[in-house]
Amino acid sequence: MAMAVTVWLNKKIVDPLLQILRRGAEPKQLAFSAALGFTLGVFPICGVTVLLCGMAIALLGSLSHSPTIMLANFIATPIELSLVVPFLRFGEALSGGPHFPLTSDALKKVLTGQASHQVLLSIAHALLGWLVAAPIILAVLYILFLPIFKVIVPKFSSVPLSPRKQHSHSEVKLKVRDV
Questions:
Q1: Is residue 87 within 8 Å of 129, Cβ to Cβ?
Q2: Residue 178 burial by Cβ neighbours in a 10 Å radius (0-12, 13-18, 19+)
Q3: Closest Cα to residue 122, out of 96, 90, 94, 88?
Q4: How many CB atoms are closer than 10 A to CB 59?
Q5: For every one of its 179 residues, what pLDDT tens digit does the chain have, with 9 covering 90 and above?
Q6: Would you give the distance in Å from CA 16 to the centre of its chain?
Q7: How many CB atoms lie within 10 A of CB 28?
Q8: Which residues contact 130 (CB under 8 A, 6 or more apart)?
Q9: Strand, helix or coil at 117?
Q10: What secondary structure letter does DSSP report for 165?
Q11: How far apart are CA 113 and CA 119, in angstroms?
Q12: Which residues, at least 6 apart from 122, have a Cβ–Cβ distance to it below 8 Å?
């Protein structure tokens, strides 16, 4: 079991991350893209995050790194499910709205269609909670990811980070002797 999880993690997360790092993107772009992908990945409506990430990639173009956004979105999926209730409660607190009960009785009402107004209101509260928290999540993650990417990108990158041509020590000596 543990071996299967390790193989899955390597195939789905570690290998794609290493491919991203080896291509030589800038640390700032990677940090922003990872933070954005994670922030969009915890959107409280399941199944919508890939569409949101696609729209962000289309709107931001070369300012973002699309593989990093999608990988961060994928990594955020289990966390997305665990944050639905906190976003709901945060949205309820912000709006002063009624507390949506998370009980088996409420689930029965939802499944039989008796609580459709309450469900829509709770979705709106969860969205409000996410909308207020998203800029903070994005900023905090960017601040956390930037130093990490500044350290690991040069270690794994096969492409120089700056567009300037790198001169070897022997090239510099040849140019001095030619003068």
A1: yes
A2: exposed
A3: 88
A4: 9
A5: 778 878 877 777 777 777 877 776 899 999 999 999 999 999 999 889 999 999 999 999 989 999 999 999 999 999 998 999 999 999 999 999 888 887 777 777 767 777 678 888 888 999 999 999 999 999 999 999 999 999 988 887 776 655 544 444 444 444 444 44
A6: 14
A7: 14
A8: 42, 43, 44, 87, 91
A9: helix
A10: P
A11: 10
A12: 88, 100
Q: What is the distance in angstroms between the CA of the first residue and the CA of the last residue of the chain?
A: 67
DSSP structural state of residue 164: S
DSSP-H helix ranges across the chain: 2-9, 15-22, 27-41, 49-60, 66-95, 104-112, 116-156, 169-178
> How far is 57 from 24, CA to CA, in rounded Å?
19
Of 135, 52, 136, 44, nearest to 91 (Cα)?
44
172 — phi, psi (to 5°)?
A: -65, -40
**Structure token pair of residue 126:** 């969860």
